[in-house]
Amino acid sequence: MSAEANSREQSALIPTTRSDHIIFVVVTLLYWSTLYVYVPILSPFLKSGGYSDVLIGIVLGSYGFVQMFVRFPLGLLSDKLQKRKPFLMLGMITGTLSCLLFMIPGSWIWPLAGRMMSGVCASSWVAFTVLYAAYFASSEATKAMSNISFLTVSGQLIGMILSGWLADTYSWNAAFTAGIFIGLAGLGLAFAIKEPREGVARAPISLRHLREVVRTPSLQQVSMLSILAHCVLFITMFGFTPLKATSLGASNGQLTLIVIAFMVPHGLASLITGRWLVPRFGTWNVIGTAYLLSGIFTVAIAFAPNLGMLALTQVLNGFAQGMHLPILLGLAIQPFESSKRATAMGFYQAIYSIGMFAGPFLAGFVNDMLGRDYGFWLGGAFAATALLLTLIWKRASARSWSSS
């Protein structure tokens, strides 16, 4: 390696101070908090408005539906402009508008519009990751992504903990109001985020590379598994689990405890899976075990007789679902050279949004026809399908290794 190349490897694209990092961290926490501050109460809020499970499923699923069509174009535009900061601001603005739209009474159109707006907000996330990575030397890329993954879970947890407490202490609209103020605070602070006038370049998302990337068998496999994983996640904690909790007598404040029971093990699993479980047991074994456990504990939600047992299912399900998501994220870009990784990641993020849409959308219809507990059986079926595919592809992978 030349001295010049080595210098680039050891220096960040954007020279930053400790204050720059602190500002970015706070904006990131505010971003995820405004996006998730109403998630635990959303389905109970919609049910209190007299909406059917079908309509609730449509509203919940619209979050992923928008991302299916917006994530990839936003990534393309961000790469073309080589600007990330405007997209961070777009995220804060749309997150704020999302909360505002939920507060408009009189029609189901407004919560649908609010959830769709939150899908636009979530689609801006790629800009955060690209800009934050530029604050680190390329040799510290893993550290940067580990940090920002932790910030993601932390921001989500902060928002979701506030959600139930605010709704219980004040009203449904208190959570949405908090989201508006959090979003505005994040937008104001985002002006201080450091990005040079010329922007931040990276190997861009490329339409030219897209066909080749999409045809890669490993990416197809990982994408299918991730779609199924997100079906389960958005049927359970980010979907109908809060409604199950309220049917068992949970107050809005007690929803906070159910959220903590799921999210803390979820975050813990994401930290230890790559560092300890995968090296010890192997990638495919960990993925298969995660789907097996998530399927069992998703179905178990339907049989929970009280809040204590429901909380236990959340602890176990949160850990199980936290096991496979970070592995799939790494596998999505693993086979590609650096010039194609942005394209692979853009495709992967857009495609797993199908699960965010399809899971709650289909579960809403199942709940309406058969009863709410059957939506969790559907989630279990998605996990079982993913387990079967994992076992098939593990065997195929083993054969390809033995023949090579």
TrEMBL record:
Q: Which residues cross the membrane?
A: 21-42, 54-74, 86-110, 116-136, 148-166, 172-193, 222-243, 255-278, 290-309, 345-362, 374-393
Tell me if Coiled coil is a UniProt keyword of this record.
Answer: no
The protein's superkingdom reads Bacteria
Q: Name one Pfam family in it.
A: MFS_1
* Residue span, Major facilitator superfamily (MFS) profile domain: 20-398
The GO molecular function terms of this record are: transmembrane transporter activity
Question: What keywords does the record list, in alphabetical order?
Answer: Cell membrane, Membrane, Transmembrane, Transmembrane helix, Transport
Q: What is this protein called?
A: MFS transporter
